[in-house]
Amino acid sequence: MITWDNSLNSLFINGKWQGSISGRSESVINPATHEKLTEVAWAGRTEAESAIQSASSAFPSWSKMTARERSKILYRTHELLLERVDRLSTILTMEQGKPLAEARGEIRSAANFFLWYAEEANRLYGEWIPSSIPGKRLLVKPEPIGVIAAITPWNFPSSMIARKLAPALASGCTVILKPAPETPLSAIELVSILAEAGVPDGVVNLVTGDALEIGSALMESRDVRLITFTGSTEVGKLLMKGSADTLKKLSLELGGHAPILVFEDANLERAANQTLASKFRNSGQTCICANRVYVHENVKERFIDLLQNKIRHLKAGNGLEKGVDLGPLINRQSLDKVQSHVEDAIQKGANVLNGGAPLQVDLSGHFYSPTLLTKVTNDMKVMQEETFGPLLPLQTFIEESDVIHRANNTDYGLAAYLFTENLSRATRVSEALEYGIVGVNDVFPAVPEAPFGGIKQSGIGKEGGAQGIHEYVNIKYISTIIDE
Ligand code: NAP
Questions:
Q1: What is the tens place of the pLDDT at every residue in 352-378?
Q2: Rounded mean pLDDT, 22-38
Q3: Helices (H), 267-393
Q4: pLDDT tens, 126-180?
Q5: 412 alpha carbon to ligand 1 midpoint, in Å?
Q6: CA pseudo-torsion sign 86, 103, 36, 176
Q7: 106 φ/ψ sector (left φ>0, alpha ψ -120 to 50, else beta)
Q8: Given pLDDT bands bounded at 50, 70 and 90, which one contains residue 4?
Q9: How far is ligand 1, taken at its centre, from the CA of residue 264, in Å?
Q10: Whether the CB of 230 sits within 6 Å of ligand 1
Q11: Is 280 exposed, middle or buried (0-12, 13-18, 19+ CB in 10 A)?
Q12: Is 253 tagged catalytic?
């Protein structure tokens, strides 16, 4: 049984849990049942400014701690997350809706980011450059960038925070976290664990609340040196524009429109399983999930049969129940977007093989039936925009060069996937795809040890890998003349 004793004191500033100055709070709703779970404090500009002040004051001592000391705190965070996986995953499912097994996977992934950056904290090496001028010593030294702000979405309410906070803390930065209003409880749990693991007061601050007020305080502040954001391309651009006056660094993980290419030499059973796993995980509310599938004309019938048979067995419902594969969409607006993509496609001639309508389950949440469309044309919205729901449009192709062109013909550049058993084709096509991430026979490329991030309008910068920690450092170059 999960209870929230004092959720109105849910802002965490300078090591103290507190309510909002205005006394305002907002409800947290279970998207499967529409039951109110609790209320959380709602911050505005003043609380955001206090959080910035607190993070600025904490920066000198946190950044001067040895990497080994910071690393120990991150290891402890990893352990606590794993010890509490039952509680954390239940909370995650209750506020976000995804099936419990997926929530458990997300908590483990969040824990693994803390483990990876506990290790990387100790390997943030500089360089000693051989000088071309006698008597000079040239040193390159990474230094933490300073106070950073992390703004995160609701679709992965724990791992999106972990991917930012773990490298930021490892490098010596201090943090203001603004989580999505739909899923503040996972953020509160994670921040409590960080405090318990030994993060000193002021190093991590949490402000859930008014996005415009908090966002403008963060963007206008000269003390905030970097904003790391995961969310829509539209908001990413707003943050970039709003940060121009203070010339902040930005790390942006934005929307995607991932293609899956299934070649005629693919292992079709594997391609179908992985296509479904990619598309219907989190009910399609995943930035790297398949948004469109291109299958070779010669294998389309078998591939479609495999997809249809598997889709029929997917079970929707409350994510806390056993055997549920699909949870609800986060809100009515998300359902309307999926429905508008389906209606637009039907009106322009698409064929609905599975689904095609909201799903009636014995719950108040917004569920949508897993949907497969064929006879899809490029002018349909579903082929142009990110759907963020359980809708899979399928087109066929014959020529490799043609499908590469179609896959690349978008402003997005986050993730793309291909299925083939031919090594030369795998290499050739993965090199030709204009994406930050390419999965070859693999739709789950996101791991802490590898750099994740998009190109074009899908973002700037990397999360994960050795590269992920470099987002949070400035490179200082020290040139010294010495008496020899
Ligand atoms: P969103 O509407 O862009 O919101 C994301 C976060 O930004 C929320 O916390 C939101 O708070 C906040 N926000 C909105 N406007 C703001 C402003 N003016 N100033 C400061 N903060 C602001 O995105 P979403 O609907 O939550 O998430 C879905 C999107 O995220 C999809 O496009 C998906 O592809 C993308 N995503 C990308 C990745 C990746 O790694 N590339 C991963 C996951 C998701 P409010 O809700 O209060 O406005």
A1: 999 999 998 889 999 999 999 999 999
A2: 97
A3: 268-280, 300-312, 332-347
A4: 999 999 999 999 999 999 999 999 999 999 999 999 999 999 999 999 999 999 9
A5: 16
A6: positive
A7: alpha
A8: confident
A9: 37
A10: yes
A11: buried
A12: yes
Nearest to 396, CA basis, from 280, 258, 260, 256:
260
Question: In this predicted structure, what is the pLDDT of residue 162?
Answer: 98
467 C-beta closer than 6 A to ligand 1? no
**Direct distance between the N- and C-terminal alpha carbons of the chain, in angstroms, rounded to an integer:** 71
Q: Is the CB of residue 9 less than 8 Å from the CB of residue 1?
A: no
Among 304, 293, 292, residue whose Cα is nearest residue 341: 292
Tokens for 367, please give them. 């569920």
Residue with tokens 């209320």: 39
Query: How open is the CA angle 445-449-450, to the nearest 5 degrees?
Result: 45
Q: Which residue, by CA, sits nearest to atom 30 of ligand 1?
A: 231
> Is the CB–ligand 1 distance for residue 210 below 6 Å?
no
Identify which of 222, 224, 145, 133 has the alpha carbon closest to the alpha carbon of residue 177. Answer: 224
255 Cα to the center of ligand 1, angstroms: 9
DSSP alpha helices (H): ranges in 121-183?
159-171
